[in-house]
Design brief:
By secondary structure, this protein is of the alpha+beta class. It contains eleven helices and 36 strands. Strand 33, helix 6 (about 475-485) and strand 34 form a beta-alpha-beta unit.
């Protein structure tokens, strides 16, 4: 294979395809209005979609906009903005009518609701009447995320939960405003509690408490003021949809959910939708909330995902007549769609104007690993015949799942003649609680062994195992480095993006609020230090012989830049080729188009040189 500059131009073209993601759905004079996040300008900014189909830009800031929510009965919204990827978001008010005639370009043109950049703030909900917001913040001690509510008229704030831990955002307020939901990590890996804070009495209720079992309980999808649906795998392997009654405490499983795949609920105006995870793609159906009977299966334009790492899942209109969602597939970037009352779907944003020229689809299969465990794979094949070079792309997390969604780098690699294999190694979510726990703490290297089994499979699948590279970000970056260190004879190159090189120093130096939660997954510094050291690629750097390309953000609050710098220094001292690119205005990943346009073509050129031409 002889890659040409045209392939690099094509990658740049694909990287510039914008995406649109759902932020919130509201109403204005009885018509739907939709807040949309789009990266058409190079970073995610806020837009509004109105009934006339016009998509109006609302912000033009120098930083990406995170979560955004309408304030009911007023033309204002609350947004999150951090600085340089540091994830210490602050909350701001946006005047939507003023913004639509010339969006704010600086924070000074916004109304600040929080103002201490040393601490993080996450929008946790907006009351139904638009007068109160909730947020999580570690402002008390820099570690524990307490829950606060703020009266927007008076500016008065009060802390409503402060029992410690790295609490996470849930679905916000109940319809009557009495309850506020948040998620709290439990004492074990893959263990999440749903907390309902009674804002009238100051009491906290744990929903579906599971003191003797690692299990997850998700955000409530409210049907009315006293009942909701929730996704949970308490007492089972897959997440089922459960109806919960606050008054009686009685719960019942929605028939047909949680049998062989995870399911999660979406509600609004008395209507219920269920999303099912079918091997990295989503099925969407409308369900009768009273009987649980299927109302309608929603036909998606392509096999893909409707809730993939975005702040907002599919959302009903305020009157419940329509359901809005963002759809992404291997062949199309994310855009917004709506399900009408009759069940028909139509596209309502058209950000991804450049369509795939390859009709890219994922071939699904699974391989058998060293111990008989089956590891799911998505396989993307180039058009050219013969044993192609191949990139094995490992997702982050590790409590996450590779999905069948748009990835411009994958598409560019395939069009350039590379095969791409995307595994869900053990420890991935989406395949049951048992599978997700197979890499916990001292079983970490079992997931690395899955990479060896994938490599053994490559030749029989039509790829060239002598030209196989590893690529991944965050935990996927750890897997890249681990593959090169523990299996040096197998891999021809690696591309590590914000990856962990040393589990000990990573845990010592990650943000204080993340440490305890990450120790649940990886092992503790106090009890498991010897294993953490043994499983660290940096401690085995002398075995690495494959060329390595590294990308990192200087402001990364999760995996400190020192993880990359230390690994690169040791490799260079041994004269092993190692290129490290650091972006001063990025954090955990590349949020800015200019940086992606710089980094990924250089990564492709690296692969062309050290992998594609190897042995040719």
């Amino acid at each position: 294979m002889d890659a040409t500059p045209d392939h690099h131009d094509r990658l740049s073209q694909l990287l510039q395809i914008p995406s649109a993601w759902l932020a919130d759905v509201g109403a204005d004079d009885g018509a739907d209005v939709v807040l949309v996040r789009s990266n058409r300008t190079g970073t995610a900014q806020l837009y509004e979609l109105r009934d006339d189909g016009d998509l109006r830009q609302l912000t033009d800031l120098d930083e990406p906009v995170g979560a955004a929510r309408y304030l009911a009965h007023q033309r204002r919204a609350v947004i999150e903005v951090d600085h340089g990827g540091d994830e210490r978001h602050q909350l701001y008010l946006v005047d939507l009518d003023a913004a639509s005639t010339g969006g704010p370009r600086t924070r000074d043109q916004l109304v600040a609701l929080t103002g201490n950049p040393r601490f993080a703030h996450q929008l946790a909900g907006v009351s139904a009447d638009g007068t109160v917001i909730a947020f999580l913040s570690n402002r008390r001690n820099g570690v524990d995320f307490d829950c606060w509510v703020r009266d927007l008229a008076t500016g008065t704030e009060r802390c409503v939960y402060r029992d410690g831990g790295w609490c996470q955002v849930s679905s916000g307020f109940s319809p009557d405003g009495r309850w506020l939901s948040i998620l709290r990590p439990g004492p074990r890996p893959l263990d999440v509690d749903l907390l309902l804070i009674d804002l009238e009495r100051g009491e906290v209720r744990v929903v579906l408490d599971h003191p003797d079992e690692a299990a997850e309980v998700g955000p409530p999808a409210w049907i009315d003021a006293t009942s909701f649906f929730v996704a949970t795998n308490v007492g089972r392997d897959f997440g089922a949809v459960v109806r919960y009654d606050l008054t009686s405490g009685v719960s019942s499983v929605l028939a047909g959910t949680g049998v062989d795949r995870d399911a999660s609920p979406i509600s609004g105006a008395g209507r219920l939708a269920v999303i099912e995870n079918d091997n990295g793609a989503h099925r969407l159906r409308l369900v009768d909330p009273a009987s649980g009977a299927l109302v309608r299966e929603i036909a998606l334009a392509e096999v893909g995902v409707v809730a993939d790492y975005v702040p907002t899942p599919p959302t009903f209109s305020k009157d419940g007549s329509r359901l809005y969602f963002a759809l992404s597939s291997p062949g199309i970037a994310s855009d917004l769609w709506v399900v009408e009352a009759d069940g028909s779907t139509r596209r309502v944003t058209f950000e991804s104007l450049v369509a795939s020229s390859s009709g890219l689809v994922a071939e699904t299969t699974a391989i058998t690993s060293f111990d008989g465990e089956r590891v799911p794979l998505f396989v993307y094949r180039p058009v050219n015949a013969g044993a192609a070079p191949v990139v094995v792309l490992v997702h982050g997390g590790p409590e996450a799942q590779a999905m069948r969604s748009f990835n411009p780098v994958v598409q560019a690699l395939v069009e350039a003649g590379y095969g791409v294999v995307v595994p869900n190694v053990r420890g991935s979510t989406g395949y049951g609680k048992r599978y997700a726990a197979l890499d916990d703490t001292t079983r970490r290297l079992d997931s690395v062994a899955d990479l060896a089994a994938i490599h053994d499979w490559l030749a029989g699948a039509g790829f060239d195992p002598s030209r196989a590279a590893l690529m991944g970000g965050s935990y996927g970056g750890y897997m890249v480095l681990a593959g090169l260190a523990f299996q040096p004879e197998r891999w021809a190159a690696g591309i590590d993006i914000v990856g962990i090189s040393d589990l000990v120093t990573f845990l010592e130096n990650t943000s204080d609020y993340r440490r305890r939660h990450r120790e649940l997954e990886y092992g503790s510094l106090e009890h498991d230090r010897d294993f953490l050291a043994a499983a660290s690629p940096r401690r085995h750097v002398d075995a690495v012989r494959a060329p390595l390309f590294m990308i990192h953000g200087r402001n990364d609050p999760r995996v400190p830049l020192s993880e990359a710098e230390d690994m690169a220094a040791h490799l260079r001292a041994r004269a092993v080729r190692c290129e490290l690119i650091v972006y001063d205005d990025e954090g955990h990943g590349l949020a800015r188009l200019a940086n992606r346009l710089d980094a990924y073509p250089r990564a492709l050129a690296f692969l062309d040189e050290v992998v594609a031409k190897r042995g040719s």
